[in-house]
Structures are given as C-alpha cells and as structure tokens.
Design brief:
The chain is mainly alpha-helical. Helices cover 67% and strands 0% of the residues.
Length: 492
C-alpha cells in the first residue's frame, strides 16, 4: 500500500486514525496499541503476505535477545557480549541471505567460470530498515540504554507504519516515551493540521515533481544508445532531482502521518543539496542512516581515536559498507567508494587548513554528488561510465532542432554542434523543470523549517491551509491519471 494511493489516503489512514483514538478515548490503552500493531502489519502485508512471517520472526527473535541482554539477575550465565554478537550476526545473516546471496553467486560464477544456479530470492520489503533498527536496539540494550520491555510496545516500535518501509531508522529511546505519554493518546488538532500540511507537501513532491523527473531519468538510464552531452546531463540531473524529491517526499509524508498520531519522527532530510562539502551533505541526507553508520560502524571501528591514518581507513570503510547496504551490485560499491574517498579528501583538506569560496565549494560538492548518483542509478558500471563519458564529450554536443532554432544567433561566435537529434530527454520543459528543481532545493524553506515556524504559532494562517488544499488537490488530480509509483528507497 503506497502513501500516494487513494486506498491509503481515503480508507486505510482515516480508519486507522479514528479507531486508534476511539480505543484510547474508551481507555482501552492495550487495545489501541494492539490495533496499531495489527494495522501496521496489515499495511506491510498488503505488498506481499509472504513478507509477513519474516518481519514477525525477526521481531520475536530480537525482542528475546534484547530482553536477555538487559537481564541483571545473577542466574543468567550467558556472556552478554557473545549474545550480542550472536544477535547481530543473525540479523546480518538474514539480510545477507535475502539481499546479497544472488550477488555473491554471480561473482563466484564470474571468477570461477562455473555456472552455479541463482536462488532468485525476492527481497522482502523494508528488510534493510527494520534489520538496522533492531540491530541498534540490541546494541542499545547491551549498553543499558533501553528501559521498556513489553512486547506489544516493542512491536509498535518496529512496525509503526509511517516509518516502517523506508525509515527514518529510529532508536527505541526516542519512540517509546512518545507511545507511553498519556497526552499523546488524545486527538491534537494542531498536530493534525500540521501533519496534513506536511503530508500534502510530500504528496505534491512525489506525484507532481519526482515522478515527472522519473520520466527523463528512466529514459536516459534505460536506453542503450549513446547520449549526447546535453542528454546525458539531462538524464543525470533528472535522476538527481527525482531521488531528492522522492526521498524528501517520503520523509515529509512519514513525518506528517506520524504527527496525526502525536508521534514525532526524527529529522531525516534537511535540504542536502545546499551542502557546501561532502560532510555537510551527509549531515543533511538520510540523517538517521548517517547516525547509524557513525554510532554502530565508524565508532566501533575506532572512529578518530586511533590516529589520523586509521581515521581515514575507518571513514572509507564505513561508507563502502553504506554503499553495500543500499544494494547488491558493484555500482553501489563504487558509489560507496566515491563517497568514502570524498570524505577522506575533505578531512585532509580541513586538516591542512585550506578554505574555499562558498559558491565554488557548493558547485564542486553538488556536481560530485550528481556524478556519484549516476553509479547509484545505473544497473551496471558500464552504463554509468557510458553516461559520464557522454556528460563530458564535447564532440557529441547534440541538441534538438527546437533548441537549435533558439540558439541560431551564436553562429557569429563560430560555435556549432556536432549533430541534431530529436529525443524525449531534453526539451524546454526539461530545462524549466531542472531550473525549478534548483530553485526549490536551494532557496525554498524545507518542511522542517516550516513546521518549526508553525509550532510557534497558536493558529496556523489561513494561507497555509489553502496551500495544503491546493497541493493535495493538484496531487490527487495527477494521481487520478496515473498509476501510483513506488518510492525509490523501497528498493533498498
């Protein structure tokens, strides 16, 4: 069930909201928690009922291990470090089996020149997210940072449907107090208004902006022909903005839906394309994943406590693993390597005391991110190389006849083009959308900044209600003419 579907917006969400708060109003607290778990499991199972047992077994296993890690009675003789290692290994093994088994077999076949059959395993939805979330829970339990051990509450922590599929990756300690808070069990119409406002922004980003960029990105990355310079840049920038607005949309919609239930999810997306260096980018993009990588991989590896050379190795290794987490393919490995190297270079640059003009720093950072996304999107490394080569191949500076008619005046400068091609990737509409993309991501306030502003208001101005209605209405009109598309991070 998609957030951007009529079924979710008009049936599942309102029914879940009304029943949850009705049960709380009747002081059926356990019943409301149980209902929310069942609703979330129904939401998850809607995609494929076969995924249901995997999620439930994972929850039961991690809950049991977590309880054992927090047990203080002397009769518990299990070495907790061994138990933690077992729990993490089991989670990683589950993830590795479903996500990386076929990738491993393919590479063994290539290296050994054998023909081992692939398992053709279907990747369970959200397995990367609920696995990482529960690994964090086990580590936090080992450290004594979890205080609540009721299974129904734990199930809510894992399955809460606004963040179940694509994050944010939340900590037990930041969610459970909110579920337990008495005040949060009654309807809060200010939160409802704010939640619907944020949700409507996210819905508009997804169905109107991201899915429009997807048309050009899919064409550019899916074609087997060589692209012209302008087509290659059009394809890469289209995907860069598609991914931005798609993930930003999911984050907004998740935060907005959670607010309807008086739950505040952690900030996960904070205008990352405004970043002026790669470290700043990772402080803004998928913030909870960056937090996980830092707290549970980078710091355990030694962080910056074991000398400068080891720090560089730890940074690099952390982001290679981050690349692998996103997908089973060498393109993701290369993407992780690129970001790992960029962070190493940035740290060395800072250590040497060098500085750079802010605009130039932004330009370099954005273009690095844009080029790295090419590997992230491409199915094979050869496809990524094909597009990147085209992006810098002046000999193939071909444009459409429509564009050529607009640029005829530059002939006086002896500037010409090697060819003219009709194509669906580059058009006036594409250019206008890319300009719009830059305008929104660089100069507009993001939904988090707007929500902070609204939090300080006792009454939300009527203008913003109208804005929400317009955004929601236009999104629903677009949705009526197209099939709802998955969010990109559902693939990871």
């Amino acid at each position: 069930m998609l957030f951007n579907s009529f079924l979710f917006i008009f049936i599942f969400l309102p029914i879940t909201w009304f029943v949850y708060f009705y049960l709380n109003k009747k002081h059926l607290t356990e019943g409301s928690k149980g209902f929310l778990v069942l609703a979330s499991l129904f939401f998850y199972s809607w995609w494929n009922i076969a995924y249901f047992p995997i999620l439930v077994i994972s929850m039961l296993f991690n809950y049991t291990v977590g309880i054992s890690l927090t047990e203080k009675k002397k009769q518990i003789k299990i070495n907790k470090k061994v138990l933690l290692t077992f729990g993490i290994t089991a989670n990683v093994s589950l993830l590795a089996y479903f996500k990386y088994a076929d990738f491993l077999i393919e590479n063994i076949n290539t290296i050994s020149n054998i023909d081992m059959p692939l398992l053709n395993i279907a990747l369970p939805l959200a397995i990367s997210f609920f696995t990482f979330q529960q690994i964090a829970y086990l580590v936090d339990s080992y450290r004594g940072e979890t205080k609540e051990y009721d299974f129904l509450n734990y199930a809510n922590f894992v399955t809460f449907f606004p963040q179940l599929i694509a994050g944010p990756i939340v900590h037990h300690s930041e969610m459970m107090p909110q579920f337990a808070k008495i005040k949060n069990k009654t309807k809060n119409y200010h939160n409802v208004a704010l939640g619907l406002f944020i949700f409507s922004i996210g819905l508009f980003k997804k169905v109107v902006i991201a899915d429009t960029f997807a048309i050009w990105a899919n064409t550019g990355f899916g074609t087997g022909i060589r692209l012209s310079l302008f087509e290659a840049w059009g394809a890469s920038l289209s995907y860069t903005f598609q991914l931005y607005f798609d993930f930003s949309a999911y984050t907004d919609m998740a935060i907005g839906i959670a607010l309807l239930f008086n739950i505040r999810l952690p900030l996960n997306f904070n205008s990352p394309y405004k970043a002026t260096n790669i470290q700043d980018f990772w402080h803004r993009w998928h913030i909870t994943l960056s937090r996980f990588l830092k707290d549970y991989i980078y710091i355990p590896l030694g962080g910056n406590r074991k000398g400068e050379s080891r720090t560089y190795v730890n940074l690099f290794a952390t982001f290679v693993l981050g690349g692998i987490w996103h997908g089973a393919g060498w393109t993701f490995v290369v993407w992780g390597i690129l970001h790992g190297l960029a962070l190493v270079v940035h740290r060395a640059w800072k250590k040497l005391g060098f500085k750079m003009n802010v605009i130039l720093a932004w330009f370099i950072t954005f273009n690095f991110i844009n080029i790295a996304w090419v590997f992230f999107r491409a199915k094979e490394i050869e496809d990524a190389v094909r597009i990147i080569v085209a992006m810098f191949n002046i000999d193939r500076m071909a444009i459409s006849k429509n564009f050529a008619s607009y640029l005829h005046y530059i002939d006086i400068f002896d500037i010409g083009f090697k060819g003219v091609r009709f194509g669906p990737i580059m058009s006036i509409y594409t250019i206008m959308m890319i300009i719009l993309g830059f305008t929104v991501v660089l100069w507009f306030k993001n939904s988090n900044e707007l929500s902070i502003k609204f939090e300080k208001m006792k009454k939300i101005p009527i203008f913003w209600y109208l804005f929400s209605v317009i955004a929601l209405g236009s999104s629903l009109i677009v949705m009526s003419f197209q099939t709802g598309s998955d969010f990109l991070y559902f693939n990871f």
